[in-house]
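#struct-pred

JT: dropping the chains for the assembly here, can someone run the whole complex?
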Amino acid sequence: MIGHNNEEHLALIADGEARIDWVRRYSPVLNGMVSNTLADGSLKGKKIAVVVHLEAKTAFLALVLADAGAEVIVAGSNPRTTNQSVVEALRDRGLTVVANADGDMVSWEKELLAAADHEPEYVIDDGAELTMRIGIHRPALYNRLKGVSEETTTGTARLYALHAAGKLPFPALTANDARCKHLFDNRYGTGQTTLQAMLRLTNRQIAGATVTIIGYGYVGRGIAEYAKKMGANVRIVETDPVRAVEAHMDGMSVGTAADKVPGASMIITATGGIRAIGAPEITTVDHDAILANAGHHDLEVDIDALVGMASSTKQMRPQITTYRVGERDIHVLSGGALVNIAGGSGHPVEIMDLTFSVQGIGAHQLINANLAPGVHVLSKELDDSIASAFLKSKGIQLDPGRPEQEDDVMALINKMPAV
Amino acid sequence: MIGHNNEEHLALIADGEARIDWVRRYSPVLNGMVSNTLADGSLKGKKIAVVVHLEAKTAFLALVLADAGAEVIVAGSNPRTTNQSVVEALRDRGLTVVANADGDMVSWEKELLAAADHEPEYVIDDGAELTMRIGIHRPALYNRLKGVSEETTTGTARLYALHAAGKLPFPALTANDARCKHLFDNRYGTGQTTLQAMLRLTNRQIAGATVTIIGYGYVGRGIAEYAKKMGANVRIVETDPVRAVEAHMDGMSVGTAADKVPGASMIITATGGIRAIGAPEITTVDHDAILANAGHHDLEVDIDALVGMASSTKQMRPQITTYRVGERDIHVLSGGALVNIAGGSGHPVEIMDLTFSVQGIGAHQLINANLAPGVHVLSKELDDSIASAFLKSKGIQLDPGRPEQEDDVMALINKMPAV
Amino acid sequence: MIGHNNEEHLALIADGEARIDWVRRYSPVLNGMVSNTLADGSLKGKKIAVVVHLEAKTAFLALVLADAGAEVIVAGSNPRTTNQSVVEALRDRGLTVVANADGDMVSWEKELLAAADHEPEYVIDDGAELTMRIGIHRPALYNRLKGVSEETTTGTARLYALHAAGKLPFPALTANDARCKHLFDNRYGTGQTTLQAMLRLTNRQIAGATVTIIGYGYVGRGIAEYAKKMGANVRIVETDPVRAVEAHMDGMSVGTAADKVPGASMIITATGGIRAIGAPEITTVDHDAILANAGHHDLEVDIDALVGMASSTKQMRPQITTYRVGERDIHVLSGGALVNIAGGSGHPVEIMDLTFSVQGIGAHQLINANLAPGVHVLSKELDDSIASAFLKSKGIQLDPGRPEQEDDVMALINKMPAV
Amino acid sequence: MIGHNNEEHLALIADGEARIDWVRRYSPVLNGMVSNTLADGSLKGKKIAVVVHLEAKTAFLALVLADAGAEVIVAGSNPRTTNQSVVEALRDRGLTVVANADGDMVSWEKELLAAADHEPEYVIDDGAELTMRIGIHRPALYNRLKGVSEETTTGTARLYALHAAGKLPFPALTANDARCKHLFDNRYGTGQTTLQAMLRLTNRQIAGATVTIIGYGYVGRGIAEYAKKMGANVRIVETDPVRAVEAHMDGMSVGTAADKVPGASMIITATGGIRAIGAPEITTVDHDAILANAGHHDLEVDIDALVGMASSTKQMRPQITTYRVGERDIHVLSGGALVNIAGGSGHPVEIMDLTFSVQGIGAHQLINANLAPGVHVLSKELDDSIASAFLKSKGIQLDPGRPEQEDDVMALINKMPAV
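RK: done, full complex below.
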């Protein structure tokens, strides 16, 4: 724990508690249906590691698991995004927290190993970061893991790769593949908050701006749609031809990075890969353009390449680093980390209520459903139950459908002779 | 053929040719890459039935197949949507056309059987209408069929049901599952043209109108998105909870039909089922509200129920039938048929260029790829090739991606010991 | 009257009546508050010429005036837009109609003079077309005119020019300056129906299309906004710098015609001037591009220039004329007339309910308010009364505001000594 | 000056300079055409008070005036929005700054009187706050004032009221009436930044939220449009009937506060008046709803009424105050101050480049144009020159228009005999 006197400590706890209370108010699913489901006793004494950006929304998920009887070990998924108030509030509630704010990549690696050394049976992971480290550095524990629930597209790809390589000896649930996660989190959540963070950090206008987005997956199109609706001139760089046609028909200007990066005043990476803005692209970035990352890796904007090419570097404003490359100033937000998290507060509470409900129900499934080793997707029934709880919290009722509304194809098929 | 003198006949042919020429101008994929692919001789002499709404765009597909050497038999998929100019132009080119305009359900049934009696080997079908009739009425031919390519969601469901019932002895390609079809056709095409047809037929304003859409699949959300952007107050009735959450987060007002039908000035069905507006809903429709169908079945608006409940029926304007039910006038567009086809010109040319490219490439696959009996989806490679040809026609280039931009997960996995 | 037998005549009347009935159903303001206001007897015996596109909505305005006791003389404002069913229905009701369908510019000139020869006291005009002809050809009548109410921006400019030239000896009301007219008619009405007509005539897709709009006044921006929301890539050509900045901040691509016409697949004129697409622009139009006009003059697309430059001309589809200019085919919709009227049904009923309510109330003002010669605008009170009637018909209530919600600046001012 | 050691002081200055440099980079008009215009020597020695929210953008305006030779006195227009870094940087450059951060209403009153006591000849004012205080408290100076340029709608109304009361002995320019100000600032600037600030402070989601906006003037409609495009269900409370029809046709749900406040999760005031959310409305606010103000007065949300009705008050998160009223928690953002300024960074740089260019050119006019006492609007030529400079900075060129493109109404008028 960071050294401070008791009064400051109590103030931090109070602040953390208030932040978590705020989340609870706008999380009707996690606070309702999910908490009730988890209250069946099956989580009692189970050791669950939660490795997600450690701020108030994650803290509320950890508390829900702890309230259901689990022994929860909490780490952060990125050294820049841990909130100390929330850390103190969780510790005050008796949870094991191995993270602290103001860490760096070195301290974060230690945190993850510390989390491993608490010997979790289950991991709620982000990017498979803890899972892969356990596999590399704690192989015996890896073979004893009972289940992993993964948050992101990138982490899901890693789990499938592990499975294909014959190195996944436990069941993994790809929370990201649940409709209640990827349909909302990646599109609405990242779309809203990425632009929100960028505009706040830069005090720039979006209407009339030329914005280039690298990648038109769920994340990229969420950002593109919000940017376009807010008046930007949006350009898309995408390698998949069908997605490129979608972007074209969505009214975006589509092409290569060589064509779409020059002239852009804001450039956002959303590929899930690395070096989306690498040395070749940096050469073509406009003077005074702004670069930000909304994909998985801190490496989508190639900071190493920028440092190598720059004659000087300056901290212009909070979270804006300016690289002088030739006669051009290139401004990078939040050091190339996820700008909506490092430069903002991450996804909206309502989105994370759905996402963490998937994680909560997923953890319950891993503990109770006796899944075989391999990669699993949450069943449609459970996915639907989360959506239904959300709708119920909004007072929205659905029609069940009447039998006479179904296409009676069987009546026709029964008229056909056997083949 | 409808009786008329030679001059009229020539004028019809000329009109049909001009209509098909118009389509060709804006169909760079079908007129380019697809025609080139089909020119390899493999279609020579193959008998292919094309059973799709018989207007200029379908005619162009039929001509592309015929130009590649196939013997093409052309029928319509709906008696109301056949265009006689186009029929005459195709006959003039030597194709077998079993359809005529001004037919009804009885004449259409005869057309389909006439198409069957030309003994096609392959069927490009819509709603599996010809396929199922062959199965019921021409079982021997059914067992000799070499392949079916299906256009719609409803027809795809029928093919899967046939397969599940053990009654699919040939390979079927679900064109609808190709990304180049369902991502564009159902969303952009139906969305644009459904509202376009409704507003033209009624001369009504969309801005400020309260529009209820039954169904939030690809079709429903396409319509909803266009309606909302054009200023409508959009309400959604949907039975699937996850889709209902999507509608909610898209800013729609979501609920039951009992709640969302009253107060709406336009009501559009898009369920793919039947009786979406049945007797219970009719009871609650507002005076002077307008009903239209954009789903598969002519049966989504239950005309039989309306007729049974109405004290009088009147043709108010072209394609507007008014039912007097109690003190209320309920106006139905295009007799409940697909309003964008029966009351308009169907999908835009550009959309059908993609969709019919899928059908053209699909026919080529059925003929050449030796697929096993069962339901198949077009491969990603072929799907991508259509998208790429579309992009090329627009002058859009894509980046191939560089190797160093990939997440190198295998480097991590290789560090892990065997499990 | 066009020669035809009695049965056909009765069918035309019935069709015209049904069309007018349709308008009445969706015109709650004209059919309610306005009709009630006009029923005070002041219109009795007054001779009013109505010179607006003569279809069902205009017919309903004429009937409302006639029902209030006026002697109404009806002419069309464009020879291509007169509907014969509506003409017959009005004649059957006893109104004087000097127009017939299938006219041309020559017959239309005769119609206007025929309307003048019925010696109207008041004119409800469109483009000041009748007013100026009376001034030129019937000067004595011109000096006896008691008032003119003008529909359009262009006509308003003409009235102001007349006034400035000392040639306006009667009061003129610029209906176009009423907020209930220009805020809605030009923006929502033209925006919706221009694209609707273009897409129907061409069967083209708007999503992904590159659309250039010449002019960013109310009309141009209405079209631009609808086009952009429907997925088009919108380019604007505008001469006013502030409007150009607005277009830029609305996310449009702004520039000169030389820059923005090439590459566009649809080009729409909306300047209110003439020759917006003249010879210099025609030189740069793409092969297979489509030209349409949404401004006032049939002369915004310079057809004479096209004819002069073309090697051949062909009627490709209904209302599509194709000019062969060099190696390029240029397609003009509706001969360059207002595409939403000549190629569609004009403004939506709801919009014209507001606009014609302004005209109805305006006529009542001209008759009762003893206005001085010159150009007048409808008072805010009367303008508001129309809006209030519209809101009431939708069941919308407004707050009156409470006295304590006003900024009490006078309290401050009273503290200041006299200057 | 706030007491601190030299190192801290230098750091503040450096931070302020970096902030101002950031603004300069994205202010091509103020930094270009305006600075050049002001460099004609006419500002030399003129005493100008600048009373606008004192952060980096305002500081850059003050520097531009100072660089042109004016003696600039800088005060803030709201005690909560003054940035100390910027204050120090301006002082370091030799400007007179009478403001400091962390002030309150009492200290702010003193600041304004201190600004007055520097005896400015010209005032660039916000809400006419300094102008009216000079009128009340320094009447002799008031009579010597040579000109005022006013920023806001509210202040403009006050200047007209002063003029009507015979208490405006100098020329006042209403910058707000310049098209380059009100067309952009109120709509795009407030729209973007109000939601941006609200969503950041609350970490809430906008998609699917029910947002009630009180007032549908330029500010209200800007917020409404952004909120709707971002997926909110938007409700409007407006007292003007024509604006209410516009809101209806823009797809908003329109009604009284009594109808539209209950059920809303966010409520935003944008009336320009006071007590838009007063005691009667507070009674109907939902539990856990959020209130924010985007209008002129800190008094649009009636904090006094809330305090009077609340059983307890708590600071939930930074800038979120929670009032317990009965069983409901009501959360007020930024104490009811302008949420985009007090809870964010105010308008985007690009918007203020336009707005402050109007102020800069306005000051130049007041000094050079010898305007009569009364309220003046910037001429169309000067307004256009700002827009043109903006376009030029973006590389956008406009067509001048050709003479043959004008409607030749005079040719017609000349045919008419004299009346």
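JT: nice. Chain A touches chain B through 77 residues (CB under 8 Å). Chain A is about 45% helix and 15% strand.
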